[in-house]
C-alpha cells in the first residue's frame, strides 16, 4: 500500500526581550540556577503580572512578516496542568483570542519548486522552567530561571507532506525570526523548539489519520530523522493491522530512538479560562503602522538584493540570505575582499564545512569576516594558490594572530606568477619527461586534456606548490602543442 504523510508543526520561539513577559526579571542566559525567578514569575500570593509591551511588538513584527491578521484585541488564559518545572500550576498563554491570526510562509524545495505553508495562528505565552536530569542520581533538579520567559508559539496548518518540506519550513522560519531580531535562533539553548505532528493515510484518501506529536526537537537534523522514524513506525503499525494511538512522543537524536511519553491531551483537559489577573490587551492601527515602518529587511528581499547587487546564483543567494548572521558575515567578507562570488564560495564551502564539523554557528567562527575577506583578496590577486589559501585558512582557524599578508610571507606561500621564471621551470621538468611528451603529441585532443594532469603534478612539486597553476598550464600547453 502507498501512504501519504501529513505534517504540521508547533514552534516555540523565545523572544529576545530584556525582561520576562509578566515581570521585570532579566532573561539573560547563563545565570546561576534559580537566581532569575522572581515572586511574580512564581505567582506568589499578592503578586500581579504586568504584560511586557516589547513582547507584543515582537509578536506584531512576526505577524507582519508572514502577512498575517494582527488581532487588535488579545486575551491571556490559564492553561492548568501539573509539572515540576511549572511552579504556578498553570501556564499563562493565549487560546481563543491570540495576537497573530492566519498567515503564510512560502518555502523553496531543493528541486526549485515553491510551496506555501499556512500559519493557523501565533500566540504569546510564558515559558516553563527546566528540569535537569544529568547531574543528579535518581533525582531531578529544577531551574526556574526560564520560567516566565516570553514565547510566541507558531501553529501551522497540516500542509507539509515530507521531512524535506518540514525542514525547509523550519529553516525558513529560523531565518525569518533571526532577521527580524525577535529571537537569537540558538536552538542548542532552546531558543527555538519544534513539536512535530505526524500522521499517515492511504494515498488517494482525504480523511486524516490519527496523529502523534514528537516534542522539543531542537535541531534540523534531529527533526528530519525524527520524522522519518515516526513515519516508518506508523506505517509498520498500520500494515501489521494495528492502530495508531494519539500520543505525545520523545525522540533521542543521539540514539535515533523514539518512545511514548504520554497519551495526547485535548484542550478541555487543561481547563482553560481567562486569566483574572490580566486584562485584554488592545492595540490600535497606529501601533501596528509604527512597527511596520521600522521592519528590517526580510530574507526574501535580501535574496533579491543579493541576486542584483552581487550577481550570485539563485542557490547561493538563497543560502546566504536565509540566516541573518550568515548574511551579515557574507556582506562584510565581500566588502573586504572585493569579490562577492569568491566570498560566497568560501563561506558556503570551506567555512561552512569547518563550522558543521565542530558544531559551531557562524557567530562563533574563529575566522572573522574581515580576516576571511583579506584571505580572499590574496586569492583573487593571485598571491595565493588554492592549496596555499587552505593552509592560511587553517592557521587563521587555529587562532594565528598574524595578519594574512604576514602569514603568507612567514610560511613562504606567495604564488609565483612570473612567466619568465615559470617558463624555465617548465623547460627543466619537461627535459626529464620525453616519453610522456611523445605520448601527448601522438594523442587526440580529447586524450591530451587527460594527459595534462601527468605534467602538472611534477610541475607543482618542482615549484614547491607556489607556481601559479593557470600560468603554468598556459606555458605547458604552448610548449607541448608547439
From TrEMBL:
Residues 328-480 form the Asn/Gln amidotransferase domain. InterPro entries: Asn/Gln-tRNA_amidoTrfase_suB/E (IPR017959), Asn/Gln-tRNA_Trfase_suB/E_cat (IPR006075), Asn/Gln_amidotransferase (IPR018027), Asn/Gln_tRNA_amidoTrase-B-like (IPR003789), GatB (IPR004413), GatB_C_1 (IPR042114), GatB_Yqey_C_2 (IPR023168), Gln-tRNA_amidoTrfase_suB_CS (IPR017958). SMART domains: GatB_Yqey. Its EC number is 6.3.5.-. The keyword Protein biosynthesis applies. GO terms for biological process: glutaminyl-tRNAGln biosynthesis via transamidation; translation. Allows the formation of correctly charged Asn-tRNA(Asn) or Gln-tRNA(Gln) through the transamidation of misacylated Asp-tRNA(Asn) or Glu-tRNA(Gln) in organisms which lack either or both of asparaginyl-tRNA or glutaminyl-tRNA synthetases. The reaction takes place in the presence of glutamine and ATP through an activated phospho-Asp-tRNA(Asn) or phospho-Glu-tRNA(Gln). NCBIfam families: gatB, PRK05477.1-2, PRK05477.1-4, PRK05477.1-5. This is Aspartyl/glutamyl-tRNA(Asn/Gln) amidotransferase subunit B. It comes from Marinobacter nanhaiticus D15-8W.
